Amino acid sequence: MKKLVLFFLPVLMLSSCVELIDDLTVNRDGSGSLKLTINLSSSKLKINSYLALDSLNGKRVPKLNEITDKIDFYADKIKSKEGIKNVSVSKNTDDFIFKVNIDFSDIEQLEQALKEVINEENSSWVNFEFDWVKWENNTLTRNNIKIPEEQLRKLKAEEIEDLKKGTYTSITRFQDPIEKYSNELSKISANKLNIMIKTSAYGLAENTQLLKNVIKVGQ
Amino acid sequence: MKFLFSALLFCLFTAESFAQKSEELIPRDAVTTFSINNINLLKKISMDDLVQYDFMAEVQSELFDGSTNDKTLKDAGFDFNQRINAFFGQTQEYEISGFTFGISDESSILQVFDDFDEIQSHIPGVKILRSELNYLFIKGSSVLILRVDPNTKLVKDIADSIWYESGYGYYIPDSDLNIFNADEYYEEDDTFEEVIPTDIIEETMEDSTFAPFDEFGDLDLLNKNYWELRDSIRFEYQQLFIRKISTELFMENRSLYSDYPDYQAQLNKPVDGIFYLDNSRNLTNNKGIWQFQNLFPSLFSDTKELYDGNIITGELNIVKNEIIVDIKAKYGEKLGRIYSDMTNSKFEKNFQKYIHKDALAYFTYNANLKNGYHTSFDVIMDMIRDDEDQKVLSNVLLAELINEFVDVDNIFEVYQGSMFGSLNGYKKIKTTRIDYQYDEETFEYSETEVEDEQDIPNFTIGFKTEKPEFLNRISRVLSKVQPDIVKHEGYYEIQNAILNTIPGYFAIVGNTVIFSVDENLFTTHLNGYAKSERINIKKAKKSKFTFVHLDLDQALMKLPKEVLTERQNEIVSALTNKSGIIELKTVKNTKKETSFQLNYTLNEDIENNGKYLLDLINSLYTLTKK
Known about the structure:
The structure holds 2 protein chains of 2 kinds.
Chain A lengths: L1 H6 L11 E8 L5 E8 L4 H8 L3 E2 L2 E2 L3 H16 L4 E9 L4 E8 L2 H15 L11 E4 L2 E4 L6 H6 L2 H9 L1 E8 L3 E4 L5 E2 L5 E7 H6 L6 E5 L2
Parallel strand pairs in A: 1-9
Antiparallel strand pairs in A: 1-2, 2-6, 3-4, 5-6, 7-8, 8-13, 9-12, 10-13, 11-12
Chain B lengths: L1 H11 L19 E5 L10 H4 L3 H11 L19 E7 L3 E9 L3 H7 L4 E3 L7 E5 L2 E6 L2 E9 L1 H17 L6 H14 L9 H10 L18 H26 L4 H4 L1 H7 L5 E6 H7 L4 H6 L1 H11 L3 E9 L2 E9 L2 H11 L17 E5 L3 H16 L5 H16 L2 H7 L4 E20 L6 E20 L3 H14 L3 E4 L2 E8 L3 E8 L2 E5 L2 H6 L13 H6 L2 E6 H6 L8 H10 L4 E10 L3 E10 L6 H16 L2
Antiparallel strand pairs in B: 1-2, 1-8, 2-3, 3-7, 4-5, 5-6, 6-7, 8-9, 9-10, 10-20, 11-12, 11-18, 12-13, 13-17, 14-15, 15-16, 16-17, 18-19, 19-20
């Protein structure tokens, strides 16, 4: 019976849509928190279809518990880094929403911790050989985390389409009102304490300057 | 593979009759072969038509490389008087694939295959050329293109052994990387810079008893990491096996054709094309069962006996607007008894009630598992009851106990073996997703559940039971203890039954158990569709054992394009405009063989069958290309 049901599954592999949110809070002393959210709820049918398979395009499909274990693995790694205080993970495997919250003593230590984890994994998917964030004289400078061009070229047409449908939201929060910012795509909240940039997931991958922003806050 | 496919396509357009026998160059290790006999079908195809097909781009780039500009196929040196044969096979040590065909002009053909370089031949009268992993043999007016891939485990074991002996310990790749991105890992691994001492490599090469083509001149043997070592060993083995196969073929004159009379008989049938699959050798040569073979040698020997004579053959004919494929599965006496008793089942006419006449596809399957089980038990136990192996005898004892103390007849009355399935198009279902709402004052966000809509295939499956009351009792209890199972009037709902998202419904009506994603079937047609809405069951009834009907055109036309990826839509486009009805039926079922017939009836008369054959090949190409 299970095999028969699986026979009808390939058509369920609908085009996917991912929503990513990075929410960075920077306190006056450079400490703060980073909340990362991945929302795949609009693709849950597709993800469940994939998870029902043993392999796809000749590659093994990891089981759900392997994926959640991997998230825990990275969370544990970051937790052990200097300057990282609290790391909490939330995994909603019904709707496929995953959240990670990291508290840090100093934003540069957060960057260092992320770099170390990526380097330890030896991933060729992320180029982290640059300054991601810098907090100096009430000014925050942010850059994109870059995906190397050769990796982008490996993406299939349908994967690019999926990324184009996805969204990326970057929010930065401060304790003092924002005075100036450099990125024209930015939107300021009514209370002037928060700044947001919304883009497509592919746009972010393609344009390495998209999230680049220099934000000056008052005292 | 892609190269072989392209080359085969090229060759399909090049032969007419059979003055010589290219089929005699098929290695005896081949297990599956496919031969086009009637190349006349392709005669009317012009080169202009030919280059319009998707696959031609591949053929041109792989084979022609511009080397046949302004040439006709005849100019290119192909012999129109020989069959085209493609073959595949495997032994415990290697896999082979390739094809054979005829040539009328060797020098012209060498211009076409200009990627191949001639190497020193160890066989008098046979020219040997090589292009990367492919070898080309020319003997007289016949050509064999052969690829041999040594068994990965064999190569790995030797490589690991040398690596270990050279003092580097066991090579264990990072398992996490394998799981998540194996391709990338293998392509880009540069983390193992250790080299094997030169003397180990030299010693290995000196000990080698095979190096028939003296190919090592250009290789740098001094600096090899683990993967380069494996490549070298693979290359060595490939040459060893190439030599073995070519010696058998050209010096000992042993081929599939000479050693297997069944294949000869099949090949000589007056049909447009044939295929041949020796399933008995498939079993014995399957490298995946080496463990079984080593742990239970006597049991393996008994299993071989069971599959003796299990050959599957097919004959392909194109008649007017129809492609007819006659398939025969031949058995030895023992396997024949099992299949015959298992398939000796009455057609379940109640299935008709639940298959709508507009179903895009459906199948019926009627088997008698109880008979099949008892016959299998008797046949297999007779074979292994007197085995000397203690492990086998332990299993015999366990099987005897289960057979004696478990009421297997009762089990097979719950599921007797007959079933059906139908695809009735696609329906929209409500799902939910989580959206984030942002507060404009603070950009704080909250989760909101919103309704979504997605298309799913509307399918129904069902089976016959002799124990409906038992299943009803189980269902009633389950609906009380399992909150996901909800009892409705006459049927049950399983919430999130499919992919944790889609509800499914089931009911036990008379002796039929039905499961569907379409609730309407249970609320409106619980006792079946009206007679005027049911399929005509005559063909399925006559077919008894199994019947499959697929309206390819309608099934594809109704596919919701928006839910398909670009790639899937590309495949659908290649298949539409040239589809019809595909039906598979059982023709005859005896203790010696089961015959099936597959009919592919086109929607309109096809004046040029060769064109249609090319369309099918193009679809196949689109489906298989990566």
